[in-house]
C-alpha cells in the first residue's frame, strides 16, 4: 500500500530572518524530507498533519505564505525512496548516539551519569521524528542502556 504524505509548501520573506530560522529549526526537529526549496514532506498521520498545519499558521502570521497538502506519489517507488531517505537520516543520528555512548562508558562518576541522561533525552528526541525506524535504533538504545551507572 502506498505511503500517504502531508506536504507543507511555504515561503517566508528574507527579512527579518528570525521567522525563517525558527521555521527551519522546527522543520529539522520534525525530521522532514526536503522535496524542494520551500516544500517539505512527512508521512501522514494525525500528529504530523497537525504539526505542519500549526507551522503553516505560524508562517502566515510571520508574513509568509504556507499551505498543507495530502499527497500520494504517482509511482510507489518514489514514496519508498522518500521513506528510505528519512530512515537513512535517522540511522546517521543513531550511529552518532552509539559512538557517544561508547565514549561515555569510559567517563567517571557524575560525568557518566550526565552523559547517559543526555543520551537518553537525545534518543527520545530522535524517536519523535523516527517515522521509518532503521536497525540502528535498537543498537543505539542498547548502547545507551549499557552505560553502567557508577
UniProtKB/TrEMBL annotation:
A Pfam short name: ChrB_N
Source superkingdom: Bacteria
Residue ranges occupied by any ChrB N-terminal domain in the UniProt entry: 20-103
Protein name per UniProt: ChrB N-terminal domain-containing protein
Organism from which the protein derives: Rhizocola hellebori
Amino acid at each position: 500500500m502506498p505511503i500517504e504524505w502531508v506536504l507543507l509548501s511555504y515561503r517566508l520573506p528574507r527579512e527579518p530572518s528570525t521567522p525563517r530560522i525558527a521555521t527551519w529549526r522546527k522543520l529539522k526537529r520534525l525530521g522532514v524530507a526536503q522535496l524542494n526549496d520551500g516544500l517539505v514532506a512527512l508521512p501522514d498521520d494525525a500528529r504530523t498533519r497537525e504539526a505542519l498545519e500549526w507551522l503553516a499558521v505560524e508562517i502566515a502570521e510571520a508574513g509568509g505564505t504556507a499551505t498543507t497538502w495530502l499527497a500520494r506519489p504517482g509511482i510507489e517507488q518514489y514514496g519508498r525512496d522518500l521513506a528510505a531517505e528519512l530512515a537513512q537520516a535517522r540511522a546517521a543520528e543513531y550511529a552518532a548516539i552509539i559512538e557517544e555512548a561508547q565514549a561515555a562508558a569510559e567517563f567517571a562518576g557524575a560525568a557518566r551519569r550526565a552523559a547517559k541522561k543526555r543520551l537518553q533525552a537525545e534518543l527520545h528526541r530522535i524517536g519523535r521524528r523516527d517515522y521509518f525506524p532503521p536497525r540502528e535504533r535498537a543498537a543505539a538504545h542498547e548502547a545507551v542502556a549499557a552505560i553502567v551507572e557508577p
